[in-house]
Amino acid sequence: MDAVITVDEEQRVLLFNQAAEKIFQRPRAQVLGQSLEMLLPARLRQVHRAHVGHFGATGATSRRMGEQSVLVGLRADGEEFPVEASISKSGEPGNQVFTAILRDVTQRVRTEQALRHSREELREMASVSQKVREQEKSRVARELHDELGGALTALKMDAAWLHERLPQGVADLEEKLTSMQRLLDQTVAATRRISADLRPMMLDDLGLAPAVDWLVHDFRRRSGIACELAIGSPDLQAHGAHATAIFRILQESLTNVARHAAATQVEITLEIEGQALILTVRDNGRGFSTGESRASGSFGLIGMRERVYLLNGEVSVQSETGKGTVVEVRIPVDQAENGA
Predict the structure, then answer these.
(1) CB atoms near residue 190 (< 10 Å)
(2) The pLDDT value given to residue 61
(3) Sheet strands (E) in the chain
(4) pLDDT 10s digits, 148-193
(5) Which of 88, 105, 106, 216 could make a disulfide contact with 62, Cβ separation 3.0–4.6 Å?
């Protein structure tokens, strides 16, 4: 049951129902004939009086109060609490009465606050988890590149040294050594590819723009799909989580194109616009209906949204069957740090 309070033009209480007694913790006899302001925190009384006066002067007969936020009531013990309210009026100017219907939304507001707090905690945990994963990928990639890559290169040099010194007439041994050299070449190439897929060294060493350029070139070489890259400024830079997010989202987008789009052309733009770093990936592939349910085991778009969400950004996907797909990512950045 909602609280109902009726006041006159001087905002003296004329009606105070049982539900109002309960939420304000005041008996009806204590409130009737008193100013409505006793039910409001002192800091809000002047504003509330002005709002009611303005409402009385308009032609409207009812409206919802506090449409953008809940209002605040004051219990007898001094506790403030949130309420939702609607107000109506009757009578002629000079003899008007105003009736407010109020609902105590304390529990709902507490639940919403707890939910927001929980979301913030989850965001913080996800951000830390993302950072730890990237750090671990970077560590493994560098160890693969430096230690295993270095050891394999040394083995290649030793194998070449042996090959040059093989005596004549040992065809079986020469064939075996040649096979070993081919396997070493393949292993070195695989190690470099795995290391780069984990985290390209140039993303840390040279920055975002060179890393994106390398990624596009590598995609073009592996897939055979024509791919154009336009970077808004040769000086464009992003650092830390921003650079990682853009690189990973582009990596996932290109993987999706190669696996699912059947595209022959991909266009990529990377630019700074105002306070946002913007990545756009456009393909001419088969497209899809954005209303379709996600395929089981398909988490690419979810991963993109997670990365962007952690940086307070936005990601949009526009697609239509037979008309290709456009992925646009906007991530807010500090102009002082992006170098553009």
Answers:
(1) 12
(2) 67
(3) 3-8, 13-16, 62-65, 71-74, 80-90, 97-104, 226-231, 265-273, 276-283, 314-319, 325-332
(4) 888 888 898 998 898 888 888 888 998 999 999 999 999 988 888 8
(5) 88
Q: Are strands 265-273 and 226-231 parallel, antiparallel or unpaired?
A: parallel
Q: What is the mean pLDDT of residues 236-262?
A: 87
Angle formed at CA 144 by CA 139 and CA 146, multiple of 5 degrees: 90
Structure tokens at 286: 């088969």
CB within 8 A of 277, min separation 6: which ones? 238, 242, 246, 270, 271, 330, 331, 332, 333, 338
Closest to 5 measured CA to CA, from 95, 115, 111, 85 = 85
Helix (H, G, I), strand (E, B) or coil at 177: helix
CATH of 202-340, one of 3.65.10.10, 3.40.1060.10, 3.30.565.10, 3.30.450.40: 3.30.565.10
Give the CATH class of 3-104.
Answer: alpha beta
Q: What is the largest CA-CA distance in the chain?
A: 121
- Token pair, residue 149, equals 């890559």
Over 213-282, what HEC string results?
A: HHHHHHHHHHHCCEEEEEECCCCCCCCHHHHHHHHHHHHHHHHHHHHHHCCCEEEEEEEEECCEEEEEEE
State the Cα–Cα distance between residues 199 and 212, nearest whole angstrom.
12
Amino acid in the structure at residue 123: R
For position 340, what pLDDT does the model report? 39
Q: Is the pLDDT of residue 265 over 50?
A: yes
In Å, how far are 260, 284, 317 from 295, measured between CA atoms? 12, 21, 16
State mean pLDDT over 110-128.
Answer: 83
